[in-house]
Design a protein that fits this description.
A hairpin with a 2-residue loop joins strand 13 and strand 14 (202-207). Helices cover 27% and strands 30% of the residues. The protein has helices at residues 23-33, 55-64, 128-145, 173-182, 216-221, 223-226, 240-245, 262-269, 301-310, 332-344, 366-370; strands at residues 5-11, 14-20, 38-40, 47-53, 72-77, 82-86, 96-100, 105-110, 115-120, 149-158, 161-166, 187-190, 193-199, 202-207, 212-214, 258-260, 277-287, 294-298, 349-354. It has two domains: 5-144, no CATH class; 147-370, no CATH class. The chain starts with a strand and ends in a 6-residue tail after the last helix. The radius of gyration is 21 Å and the shape is globular. The chain contains eleven helices and 19 strands. By secondary structure, it is an alpha+beta fold.
Length: 376
């Protein structure tokens, strides 16, 4: 079987060509990756990725069974865990074959040929996420190898200046991001991973696309933005056209979280996506039970350095594990250089305390509160 649709995507200097026999999968991937990954027409690429439904080949791989050593390989980094997959028998010499039971697919990685094959028995809609993870991980490893740093952070842009919202899981990053975008005048960069890169302007911020987990509290607080779109539990794996053509949820389940694609998230808030901008400040949200609004104060140099170091995204190379995609290792020296660079540039590092009334109408919004702190 030869995949019938193909498109190349460029992130920074890396190009990855993706081919699949399901055009809907490729369209969904394009909607997720743009504008950070620019579509390209050239066939000259650094990696070639195929995603196919091939029951016969899937059956042959299944029959090979798991490698007797029980070895697992580091494949993907998520915000809270490193995805390790069992190594499988089979494949040419030097190839890596692994099975992912979350999406019911096999991966075959050939470093020598710079190829990744994703083989499924059937192409289910949520299986598209496996393809997104492969393309994203290849780009992240290449960016780290070229001296960039990823933060566990959401990000938005106003008038060419980017603001990162950094912190651990459940810190309130997505809710603060939604509030900033809903306040007007901001554009969406990223929800969970923000890349810091050096340029002639200093430090620039760029997004790395991820699915957006809108938790129940955030969904309820901003229901007037999300409810009209009729998003259901499976909307995140659908293209715009597929969502519009299918049944729409008429009874919003505000007590339940929902997962959206980056494009759906931006559509719900009525904002346009941004490729990024010059870093103006990094905010660290802190949730407070006090009946107050949003309070922003600048952190001391020592506290800022500690909080920023804790917010560096845990890439495979930083975990100390050998990446299945052969990425270069993150070094402590690179991290220290970044922390020193940001301090030298005097990028404001801000504690953003979010009181119980932070998102109520009439309170000072985060864009107004940032005016006296942003790096000009």
């Amino acid at each position: 079987m030869t995949p019938g649709a193909a498109l190349a995507f460029q992130y920074l200097r890396q190009r990855t060509r993706v081919a699949t026999d399901a055009p809907g999968h490729l369209e969904w991937l394009r909607e997720c990756l743009e504008p950070h990954f620019a579509p390209q027409t050239s066939n000259a690429c650094d990696w070639n990725v195929t995603f196919s439904s091939d029951p016969e080949r899937y059956g042959c791989l299944t029959a090979q069974k798991r490698a007797p050593s029980g070895e697992t390989l580091a494949f993907f980094t998520l915000d809270s865990r490193l995805v390790r997959l069992p190594r499988w028998n089979g494949g040419a010499a030097g190839d890596v074959v692994a099975f992912d039971d979350e999406f019911d697919v096999f991966y075959r990685v050939s470093e020598a040929r710079r190829e990744v094959d994703v083989v499924a028995k059937t192409l289910r809609p949520w299986g598209r996420v496996a393809l997104l993870r492969v393309v994203r991980e290849l780009a992240m490893e290449e960016a780290v190898a070229n001296g960039c740093m990823f933060l566990h952070a959401a990000a938005f842009e106003c008038d060419g200046v980017a603001y990162a919202i950094a912190g651990p899981k459940h810190a309130g990053k997505t809710t603060l991001l939604v509030h900033a975008l809903a306040s007007g005048g901001a554009r969406f960069i990223a929800n969970d991973r923000a890349l810091l890169d050096r340029s002639f302007e200093g430090t620039t911020v760029r997004g790395m696309p991820t699915l957006v987990n809108v938790r129940a509290g955030t969904r309820a607080t901003f229901a007037h933005h999300f409810d009209p779109h009729g998003y259901g539990p499976d909307s995140g794996c659908l293209t715009r056209a597929e969502h519009e053509a299918g049944p729409r949820a008429t009874d919003p389940r505000r007590a339940e979280p929902m997962i959206l694609s980056p494009r759906q998230f931006a559509d719900a808030l009525g904002v346009s996506p941004s490729t990024g901008g010059r870093l103006g400040a990094i905010l660290f949200p802190v949730i407070s039970s006090a009946p107050t609004g949003i309070d922003i104060v600048e952190l001391s140099a020592t506290t800022a350095r500690d909080w920023l170091a804790a917010a560096v995204f845990p890439s495979v190379s930083r975990s100390g594990s050998l990446s299945a995609f052969c990425g270069s290792s993150w070094t402590a020296a690179l991290g220290e250089a970044w922390l020193s660079d940001l301090a030298a540039q005097r990028i404001p590092m801000l504690r953003c305390t979010l009181g119980a009334n932070a998102y109520r109408p009439g309170m000072t919004n985060v864009l107004e509160a940032l005016q006296t702190h942003a790096h000009g």
